[in-house]
Amino acid sequence: MEVKIAKNAGFCFGVKRAMKMAWDELEKSNDGIYALGPLIHNKQAVLKYEENGLRTINEVNDVPTSNRMIIRSHGVGESVYIESDKKGLDVIDTTCPFVKKIHEIAKNYYSKGYKVIVIGDYKHPEVIGINGWCNNEAIIIKTIEDLENVELEKSNKYCIVAQTTIHVDLYNKIVKALSDKLEEVVFNNTICSATKVRQEAAKEISKEVDMMVVVGGKHSSNTQKLVQICMEYVPTLAIETVDELNEEDFKNYNTIGLTAGASTPDWIIEEVINYIESL
């Protein structure tokens, strides 16, 4: 059975950087280190780190005073830094530089009196973090339908940013709709370049195969976007690990395409490839 792998699959720059920074800190630590929320949206990778001393917590208050705490690649709101400083925590900030740039944009325009609009999922930690840099007053738009329930004043000034992993086509549709509604608006296309390339690669390979396998965390936003893209072209399986596959899944297909989310480690991808090729 032939497997075709998308040109861009697996760890992106931001995740790779965060994982290395966290691992380096674990190697220097004698008594473990705390992570504010899951390090990345891949439970298998997080488990490996936890087995080596990483302790995942949900609140800054869960970290004992004067300990070390990792801020994950998704980023956090400004209040987390203030709270951490008050507790005397040694913060290891692995926030993706592309996400950090959005924080700067949101804070800057909010301070100038702009209303910030975030195109993204209000439940996603990255979007929650961005909102935390404009006093948690941002308007969050996840779908084109959300615009019907949002009150926008033409007299206001608006600043638009996007979750780094949002679907490019969705972003363009929402931007067009907002352009028609607003007079004074600054658009910032903050979709990560790696996200755009990964989505385009998934689309292209989907046109060349009989079915697609998308490997990545069930809670990974960028992974689920890849699933949606692939499903537009061919039957698609979304899995976290090779254990979710069986021979029956592939009996009607000859050429299998494979892509993976930005939080998917190479070793998980390789296990899936080896399994499919062995059929």
UniProtKB/TrEMBL annotation:
Residues binding (2E)-4-hydroxy-3-methylbut-2-enyl diphosphate, per UniProt: H41, H74, H124, T164, S220, S221, N222, S263
Binding site for isopentenyl diphosphate: H41, H74, H124, S220, S221, N222, S263
InterPro entries: LytB/IspH
Binding site for dimethylallyl diphosphate: H41, H74, H124, S220, S221, N222, S263
Cofactor note: Binds 1 [4Fe-4S] cluster per subunit.
Cofactor: [4Fe-4S] cluster
Keywords: 4Fe-4S, Iron, Iron-sulfur, Isoprene biosynthesis, Metal-binding, Oxidoreductase
Binding positions ([4Fe-4S] cluster): C12, C96, C192
Family the UniProt entry places it in: Belongs to the IspH family.
Protein name per Swiss-Prot or TrEMBL: 4-hydroxy-3-methylbut-2-enyl diphosphate reductase
Organism the protein comes from: Paeniclostridium hominis
